[in-house]
Write the structure tokens for this entry.
Amino acid sequence: MKIGIFDSGVGGLTVAKEIKNLLPNQPIIYFGDTARTPYGTKSRETLLTYAKEDASFLLAQGAGLIVIACHSAASTATDVLKQSLDVPVFEVVTPSINQALALTRSRRIGLIGTRATVSSGIYEQKIGALEPQARVIGQPCPLLVPLVEEGWLNARETRMIVKKYLRPLKQQKIDTLVLGCTHYPLLKKMIQEKIGKRTAVVDPSLEVARAVKKYLLENGFVSNGREQDKYFVSDIGPATEDIVRRFMGRKIELVKV
Ligand code: DGL
């Protein structure tokens, strides 16, 4: 079974990479909507339209399962895609919520992400349904995506901005923090340092990869073939290939559609 993964751009490669780590022989089809990125600043209506188009593209390429790697899209479009598609839909929000609830003791959970993700209210809704005593403290961090794409992963300026974004979450005494954006795993070490070692950090790219692997194993869909992975993007700009290399740690061939 081919795994179709979509994202607003190249950030979802953090998810593709974890899936390949756990399922090295499973063919993936990736679609990054680089022509219309960012999604994190878009309205719910626009995100719904984009997410439906992205998923349709992957299905047309033969995907048997869809992974919404983009948190902004997953926060707004999961229910609609689950209702309208005939294939299983996985996404980054649900497994992260399960992991956050498993880890928290104080039931004070921090969420960092784009404005679209934090303002969607999906974490409050889903966590509230499972654990009414839990509290979600959300913090949009819009500057982090461009900093990661610029490769400022260890820059002093990035450190200062991360610290500033995390300060309100520390003041609220969270004990668990969800990295609710495709780009944040690249800043995981810095974020862990700034939030403090007593706060558990949830990396959704790992959680969704585990969920996909569990499903494939349980249903006998794990491949051992050598089918080629395909990486599609809707635009290749001057920096796209460099950013891709930063995310994947190697060069990959992009096909523009
Ligand atoms: N992929 C997006 C997300 O995880 C971040 C980049 C964007 O805003 O498009 O929310």
Remarks:
- Residues 7-9, 11, 37-40, 70-72, 114, 117, 145, 181-183 surround D-glutamic acid (CB under 6 Å).
- DSSP finds eleven helices and ten strands in the chain.
- The chain has two domains: 3-91+206-256, 93-204.
